[in-house]
Amino acid sequence: MTGPAPAAIGTLRSVAWTRILASARRRLERAGGELSGTITLADPDEDERRLIIGLTGVHRPPGVRAVRIGLRQLDAAVAAETGLSLVDALAVLDGPVRNRPAERSAEVRARDEAVANAAARAGSHADRPWFLGWLDELTRDGTLTRLVRRGDGDQLGWACTVLAALPIPAGQPLSLPVLAERTTGNTKALSGTAISTLVLRALARSAGAPPPVTAAQRRQRWAAAGVIVDDLASQVLVLGLRPPQDNVVAGWLRTASAAGIPFRLTLHQLTIDPITLDAPDVYVCENPAVLRAAATEWDDRRPPLICTEGQPSAACHRVLAGASGTVHWRGDFDWTGLRTTAAAARQHGALPWRMSTGDYLRAIDAPLADTEPLKGAPAPSPWEPALAGVMATRGRAVMEERLIPLLLADL
User: Is the Cβ–Cβ distance between 373 and 367 less than 8 Å?
Assistant: First the structure.
């Protein structure tokens, strides 16, 4: 096709044509390029009114509220003016006319393919409610559409490949680059990428928690799945650990225990100088206030006390993996506390410590009890199923600090 003369196509760049051609483009894109129907120009100015009269041969009086012209009639007029069809002229002026119905159909197919591919790569997670809810959420909030539009739909599949490798068993943590290389072949694939964001959203949903937004929350979420982002940032607060090993870290811990001094261990230290705990009983609390209260009246003959400070870290799991005695575990009376207690029972054979229905009711009914509404998705209490039901009925959480006198008496 011979191109139009510059002067001819330049005619269509005049102000009088601007709204007419913009309206024609919108109509054509909605109709997939079909020259059907009419376009309407509301409140035309004098130049637009005169142009429409010239294009249609029909008089429109001054002050007319709206004028219409059929697309086929406009196509013929543009061809007479420039030698180009309406569609070709629009392409020369502002780029090709899009076929939006075809684009939407292709987009739907791409989303469906991405979801099917994700489910196929999710392993044992594929039929779990949290996984299905995660996929539905990504579809509803537009995340999947954005990935598809920029050609990254397969990142959802890679995220599912990573999820299929998680959680990593307690005591066998992997560094984030190693996990990335094993699952994607790229050591940097999980470092601040769209894939890592998708994985973290899935892990948060599986735990009934909101998606992490800070670096600390992201480290915590990875650590809960057994993945180490930073072995110095992964820490655990302890009191009274007396490991038998002859290494630097074990010596520090024995000295701190004798003095009743709380000690903060890093995963890096535990990796360099592994320790074990030969005590017949090891107690685990969630809140530092409990450990701080225990330190004020510490006796070196008391059992070791470990504080998770919320979600247990990889360092915490490493210490507990070396415990030969019974692990007694407790958390707050909230849904997260129930989840971490159930997970500790599975991973470490832990026994719930003051986590019964009676303990909850005594705490919540105590005079001046400081409680707050339960938040997040409900969780079961497998060791005592009635507990979760009673908590849901009461609708209140009880923080561990309410039980400090009772817990210190146990120790």
Answer: no
pLDDT tens, residue by residue, 284-329: 999 999 999 999 989 888 999 999 998 898 899 999 999 999 999 9
The candidate with the shortest Cα–Cα distance to 63, out of 49, 75, 53, 74, is 49
> Buried (b) or exposed (e) across 144-171, using 16+ Cβ within 10 A?
bbebbeeeebbbbbbbbbbbeebebebe
**Residue showing tokens 């990335």:** 180
Instruction: Sketch the domain layout of the chain as residue ranges.
Output: 6-98, 101-228, 235-410
Rounded to whole angstroms, the Cα distance separating 28 from 94 reads: 14
CB 208 within 8 A of CB 379: yes
Which of the listed CATH numbers 2.40.30.10, 3.30.390.50, 3.40.50.300, 3.40.1360.10 matches domain 235-410? 3.40.1360.10
Q: What is the spatial distance between Cα 329 and Cα 113, in angstroms, rounded to a whole number? A: 44
Work out whether strand 263-266 and strand 281-285 pair parallel, antiparallel, or are unpaired: unpaired
DSSP per residue, 124-144: GGTT-HHHHHHHHHHHHTTHH
Looking up tokens 């973290």, which residue turns up?
A: 200
